[in-house]
Design a protein that fits this description.
The complex is a heterodimer of chains A (309) and B (267).
Chain A (H helix, E strand, L loop, with lengths): L1 E10 L2 E11 L4 E5 L6 H8 L7 E6 L10 H4 E4 L11 H10 L5 H10 L15 H13 L5 E5 L7 H16 L3 E6 L2 H7 L2 E6 L2 E7 H8 L3 E5 L3 H10 L3 E3 L5 E5 L3 H10 L6 E5 L3 H15 L12
Chain B lengths: L15 H13 L2 H27 L7 H4 L8 H22 L1 H8 L3 H37 L11 H26 L2 H20 L3 H8 L3 H9 L10 H25 L3
The chains are: A alpha/beta (309), B mainly alpha (267).
C-alpha cells in the first residue's frame, strides 16, 4: 500500500508535482499514467525517499520509505534508465544489492533465472540492450521478495515477448496480494496491464479510477453523418441540445446521440442520409484529451468516483 | 521463463556490516578498480627503483638534500597520489554517472551510512595496498643505493615515519577524492577539484608575497604531506606530525561538507 498526501515537489519556480494525493492498493496493478514531464518519475523518487518532497508526505506500507529496516524486503523498485553501474556484471550488481540486507547468493541466482538473464549474468551491464537492462532492473526489484513493487516504464525497450512476460509477471505479483505501481506514458500499456489508474498531468491528479470506468467513460462515441440536408439536420439536432460539429459541407459529426436515434430523427423529418457511422474514440485519444485539458485549463477537478479500488 | 511463485528469502535488516560488505563487493567487482590500483602500485614502486638507480649513479656530492634523504625513494607518492585520489573519486562518481546511486540509496536510505561505508572500504584498500607499495619502493630503491654505499635503513631518523607515512597519506588522499566525489558528483568536476587542491593551489599560493605565502603554503595538503613524509628537514614546513594533523583536518572538512550536502540534496 502506497499513500500520498498533498505530495508537492517544487524546483525553483517550476512545480513538478502539485499537491498529489492518492492511494495505491495491494492486490491490483495500479497504473500511473501521464505524458512525459507530468511528474511521474519525480513522484516515484519521492516514494523511494530519493527526492525530498517540498511539502506533503508519502508512505509505503504505513511508513516513510527510509524508516523501513530492510527496504528491499518492503519495496522493489525499477527505476528509470537502469540505475545500474555499467562496469559491473549483472550477477555482481545483484550480489552487491543483495548484500545490504543479507540476501544470499541463492536468491540472486533465482532472480537471474526468473528474469531470463542466465546466459548474460556474468557480462558487463554496460553492454546490455535496453530490454536486458530492464530485466536486470526487474531482477533487482524482486531480490527481497517485496510486498510492494514500483516500476517506472518497465516495458520500455522490451520486445513483444518481453512485454507479454512482464505483463503476466505483474498480474501474478498483484494476484499474490502485492501492491504493484506501474508508471507509463502509454495508455495502451495500461489498458492491458492495470486494473486501476492514476492519471496525472503537469504534476496534478486528473483521474483516480478503475480502468474499466475509464474505458467506459472514454467510449462516448461520435457519429459521422453524411447528408445533402446537413444544414437542416444540424439545426434539428442543435434544437434538441445535441452537440454537432461540421468540418466540411455535407458532413456532420454528432456527439451525444446514437446512430440509431439520428437515423430515426432524420427519417421523421424527411431528411436524406447517405452515411451514418459510429466512431469510437481510442483509449489513447481519450487519455490525450484528458491530459490536454490539464495543460489548457491547469485546474482540472479530480474525479471523485472510484477512488478506492 | 516461467513466472514461478517467488520464494520468500530470509528477511533481513540493513546493518553497518552489510553495507560495508556491499561496498566491498562493489569495489572488487569493477575491473577498473584493480587496474587503477595496479597502476598506483607500479607508479610507486617504479619511481622507487628509478630514483634509487639514478641517485646511486649520480655524483653524490652534487645532489641536493632531498635526494639524499631516506625518503627519496618513496617520493613516487607525488604521482601515485593522483591515481589513488582519482580512484577514490571514481568509487563515488561512478555511481552518480551511471545512476547506480539511486539503486544504492533505495537499498540503503541512510545515505550517511553509505558515505561512511564507502570511505571505510576505500581507505582500507588504499592503506593496505599503498603501505605495501611504499615499503616495496623503499626496499627496491635500496637495492641500487646500498650497492653504492648510500643505502638507508628504516631505523634511520624519520625513515620509518616517512615510508609508513606515505601509505597513510595516500589513504587520506583517497578519502579526500571520495569526499570531493560526494560534493561535486561528477567525475570530471571532482578530479579537477582534486588536482586543483593538490597541485594547482600550491602554485597559486607561490605567487603571493613570501611574507604571507609561506605561512599559508605550509597548511596546504601538498606541503603538509611533504612535511609528514620527508625523513629529513623541509624548509618552511610544519613539524611532521603537525603535518599529519593538518592533512586529517582537510579530509575531515571535506567529509563534513560532503555529509551536509548529502543530507540536503536530492538524488
Amino acid at each position: 500500500m502506497i499513500e500520498a498526501q498533498g505530495l508537492t515537489k517544487q524546483y525553483g519556480e517550476k512545480i513538478a508535482v502539485d499537491n498529489l494525493s492518492f492511494t495505491v492498493e495491494p492486490g491490483v496493478v495500479t497504473g500511473f499514467l501521464g505524458p512525459n514531464g507530468a511528474g511521474k518519475s519525480t513522484t516515484m523518487r519521492m516514494i523511494l525517499g530519493l527526492d525530498a518532497p517540498t511539502s506533503g508526505r508519502v508512505t509505503v506500507n504505513g511508513r516513510a520509505y527510509a524508516e523501513h529496516a530492510g527496504p528491499l524486503h518492503e519495496v522493489g523498485a525499477l527505476l528509470e534508465a537502469g540505475a545500474i553501474h555499467t562496469g559491473r556484471s549483472a550477477a555482481n550488481h545483484l550480489l552487491a544489492m543483495a548484500a545490504t540486507t543479507g540476501i544470499g547468493r541463492r536468491r540472486v541466482e533465482e532472480v537471474i533465472d526468473l528474469v531470463g538473464l542466465r546466459e548474460v549474468a556474468h557480462k558487463r551491464a554496460g553492454g546490455f540492450s535496453l530490454g536486458m537492462g530492464q530485466r536486470l532492473g526487474i531482477a533487482s526489484a524482486l531480490l527481497g521478495d517485496p510486498r510492494t513493487l514500483i516500476l517506472d516504464e518497465p516495458v520500455n525497450g522490451l520486445d513483444p515477448e518481453g512485454v507479454r512476460w512482464i505483463r503476466t509477471l505483474l498480474r501474478q505479483l498483484a494476484d499474490e496480494g502485492r501492491t504493484v505501481f506501474l508508471a507509463s506514458h502509454l495508455m495502451s500499456d495500461m489498458a492491458l496491464t492495470a486494473e486501476h489508474l492514476i492519471v496525472v498531468g503537469r504534476g496534478r491528479l486528473i483521474r483516480d479510477m478503475s480502468v474499466d470506468d475509464f474505458i467506459a467513460g472514454a467510449s462516448t462515441t461520435a457519429v459521422h453523418v453524411r447528408s445533402p440536408d446537413d444544414a437542416r439536420l444540424r439545426d434539428l439536432l442543435l434544437a434538441d441540445g445535441i452537440e454537432v460539429a461540421s468540418s466540411e459541407a455535407g458532413r456532420l459529426q454528432v456527439t451525444g446521440m446514437t446512430s440509431d436515434d439520428i437515423g430515426y430523427r432524420a427519417a421523421a423529418a424527411g431528411l436524406t442520409l447517405l452515411e451514418l457511422t459510429p466512431v469510437q474514440a481510442s483509449l489513447e485519444e481519450a487519455f490525450m484529451a484528458l491530459t490536454r485539458d490539464a495543460v489548457e485549463y491547469r485546474a482540472p477537478t479530480p474525479a471523485s468516483e472510484g477512488i478506492a479500488a | 521463463m516461467s513466472v514461478a511463485r517467488l520464494a520468500a528469502p530470509p528477511g533481513g535488516k540493513v546493518t553497518p556490516g552489510r553495507i560495508l560488505n556491499s561496498e566491498w563487493i562493489k569495489f572488487r567487482t569493477l575491473r577498473s578498480s584493480w587496474l587503477t590500483l595496479l597502476g598506483a602500485v607500479v607508479a610507486m614502486v617504479g619511481t622507487g627503483l628509478v630514483v634509487g638507480y639514478v641517485t646511486s649513479t649520480s655524483d653524490w656530492a652534487t645532489l641536493d638534500g632531498v635526494a639524499t634523504f631516506a625518503s627519496a625513494t618513496v617520493r613516487g607518492y607525488l604521482l601515485t597520489q593522483l591515481i589513488v585520489g582519482v580512484l577514490g573519486v571514481l568509487f563515488v562518481t561512478g555511481e552518480y554517472g551511471t545512476g547506480m546511486i539511486r539503486s544504492t540509496f533505495a537499498a540503503v536510505p541512510r545515505r550517511l551510512h553509505v558515505l561512511a561505508a564507502k570511505t571505510v572500504v576505500f581507505s582500507a584498500v588504499a592503506l593496505v595496498s599503498m603501505t605495501l607499495a611504499s615499503f616495496a619502493a623503499f626496499f627496491g630503491g635500496q637495492i641500487f643505493l646500498s650497492a653504492d654505499g648510500h643505502g638507508s635503513s628504516l631505523s634511520d631518523p624519520g625513515a620509518l615515519r616517512a615510508v609508513a607515512g606515505v601509505g597513510v597519506y595516500l589513504m587520506l588522499v583517497g578519502a579526500l577524492g571520495g569526499a570531493l566525489g560526494w560534493i561535486v558528483r561528477s567525475t570530471a568536476g571532482a578530479i579537477t577539484a582534486l588536482v586543483a587542491l593538490l597541485l594547482i593551489l600550491p602554485v597559486l599560493v607561490g605567487f603571493l608575497p613570501a611574507s604571507v605565502g609561506t605561512d599559508i603554503a605550509k597548511f596546504l595538503p601538498s606541503d603538509a604531506a611533504e612535511a609528514f613524509v620527508s625523513s629529513g628537514p623541509v624548509a618552511n614546513a610544519l613539524a611532521p606530525w603537525t603535518g599529519l594533523g593538518v592533512l586529517v583536518l582537510w579530509v575531515a572538512l571535506a567529509l563534513a561538507a560532503a555529509t551536509v550536502l548529502l543530507r540536503r540534496r536530492d538524488t
